[in-house]
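explain this.
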Amino acid sequence: MNRDPFKEYIKQTEPSKREKGYAWHTAIGLQAVDGLKTSKYLLDTAIKNIEGEISIEEAQELLDTYYEENLNADAGDRTEEADKVAVRIAKNLSEKAFSFTPNEYLSIHKKLFEGIYGHAGKLRDYNITKKEWILNGASVLYGSASELRATLEYDFLEERKFSYKNLTMDEIIHHLAVFVSRLWQIHVFGEGNTRTTAVFFIKYLRTLGFDATNDIFAEKCMVFSKCPC
């Protein structure tokens, strides 16, 4: 999209439209992490949701029906994946419920990718080394499959024990950046790690009292994936 139609909604003072605008802005922006683009149909559906014409559940149903009735709509470019994951991200970000646990992290992955990836919500059971195009082809050493659960639980435990008391804002930001980059580098899923981590992190920030505007994730998703580990 050359023009972001959600900018005007984000500027609005009406809380409902502003929050929905942020959610959709982020949901669609995050698809660029895997080089994916959403369709005009998804965009039109998102605007109907923001305007209050349909609920987020109805938006999801419309999208599912659209692809059921238009089997060739994807044209092999993964647009269907981008559309379906985008509406699921928008829905997840609109939900207030959240728990800072590994199971919540796995649950978000399942909600975003069920029916798209066979391993949705499951830890990968194989080792991977990938040359990330997002890192200019550099290889990344991800967590060992045999240690994924233990590593994930350790990082969550350490973060849960950490105290933000008396820290400067710069110190808080640095600590959070290190935490989220480590969480991403474990790469517990076969695919969908960055999008899942971004959604989880946005919701976690909210529990810490931060007014996460989501801009860094929607507009700078490439930078997010390049966080130093």
Notes: The longest helix spans residues 169-186. The longest strand covers residues 129-132. Residues 225-229 have pLDDT under 50 and may be disordered.
